[in-house]
## 1
Amino acid sequence: MKEVTVQELKQMFDTKEDFQLIDVREPYEFEICDLGGTLIPVGTIMDNADKISKEKTVVIHCRSGQRSKTAIMNLEEKFGFKNLFNLRGGILAYADEIDHSKIKY
């Protein structure tokens, strides 16, 4: 599975790269803290695959990186996505290594 580090994601933000960020956590988690992505909870991701770009890089994240891995495996298997990247360590790693103002839970 392809992954990006939190440092690579920060660089993507900084250089204003054209990519899509998908957050597969639950709405209550998204309310605690977010990275500015589109919220599509993992339980609904298969029904919302049409909202995910097949043309540009797509970074999918969750709290620690496990739910996003599952989402990516399912999307690749069922819909043939080739452009999905897991955020290694999820939003927890982003809070630890990039933005200490993000609330960890």
Note: Residues 60 and 96 are 18 Å apart (CA to CA).
## 2
Amino acid sequence: MDGNNGLFRVVRGNEIVRIIASDAVDTGWEHASVSIENAQRCPTWEEMCFVKDLFWDKEETVVQFHPPESEYVNYHPYCLHLWRCPQFSYPLPDSILVGPKGVTA
């Protein structure tokens, strides 16, 4: 491990969340690959939020990309990725396009 770079195994409830993280020093991108050890499924939204909060501040925007199909890479079928470019401020849609704040279904 070197700063936020390395392989991390974090216990969360009954699961072990496996994270491979790197910062922006060489690539310009901060990145975390997230999978659940010994599980045949992708991480849930809650698990991805947990990892986001481990590596980034709560008020930083971190994204999951859906690139053009011609750019797909599926090296591990149950792994999802979080990305942040520190030199770029992501535009965000107005939250009302998702729903009213403070209201849950």
Note: The CA atoms of residues 61 and 84 lie 7 Å apart.
